[in-house]
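[User] Could I get a sequence and structure tokens?

[Assistant]
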Amino acid sequence: MPVERTELGGRIHVQWNTTSAEGAHGSEFMMRRARLWGATRINDWIDGAVQVDVSGATAVARMAFLRLSLNPAARISFGQFKRALDVFQLTSSSDVLVVERDGDVRGASDCAGVGGVCSFTRFAEGLQFTSLDVGALLEGATTDGRLGWLFSVTNGSGGNAREENAAKSFSGRLEWMAREKVKLSANAGLHDFPNEVTGHDEHAPALGADVEVGDFERGFHLQAGVMAGENWLNLDGTGEASRFVTWQAIATWKVSLEGKGRIGAVEPVARVSWGDPDRDAASDGGLLLTPGFVLHFQGKNKFGVNLDTWRPQDGETVWGLKAQTYLYF
């Protein structure tokens, strides 16, 4: 059977960053991402893709799945993919509105359980409610495209990791296009983990909601979300997990400069993210503020700068400056 279409491509993201955190060494250059990908469509209902990260000393698979499109309401994927949860993680690193989703400030580690800064994505990724995992994903939408859904069942141990127990993790997302360029979503996750205190396999829940206004093409674009659940990485002496809560908003305004030089568009960026890793503690959590901008060249090729400022409830304010180039081929 002949293959209908095969595509190959890649991306390279190079970053320079520095930080004011005490004890962290000065500035550094880093290969943030170097990825190759290939996608193929066998026929009108079978396709798949693989993405390999070669930015480190070894090459590891990121996205790798086979997808069966049974009908518009039911597409089933098997393999390694992003779990169905929040809008920030489901946005590709090709389009993400800030340089780093988690706003990490190198040298800061104030967030109980997950470490680093208490940003929305730090909780979502650190507690493994989102990001890569191995399993099955069901997705679909109504005929008019106004209502969509995603549901995944996975090992729960993360990308490129073997299953560590007999339990499974679950996540689901319901999306509603309230009007043109306005999408409202609700999501839920149930992450399985071996409780190191009790010695039993348990599940930690998370509930959230988010909204997206606008798109990546031009004008105003907003992504905002809230999430609460159990911080299973922060257990007390009886094995009880603390409760976390977090919210975040990222807004940009993309202004086209086409025909006026080599820069195709300029896009100011602003993020506000707050999180509390233990709602019963008096002085946990803090606020992350990120001003910045993006210069767009051709296609997805661009240059971005962010100043991430972390203000913990109890501790010293620190900042991290990041500049990143984005090359696609």
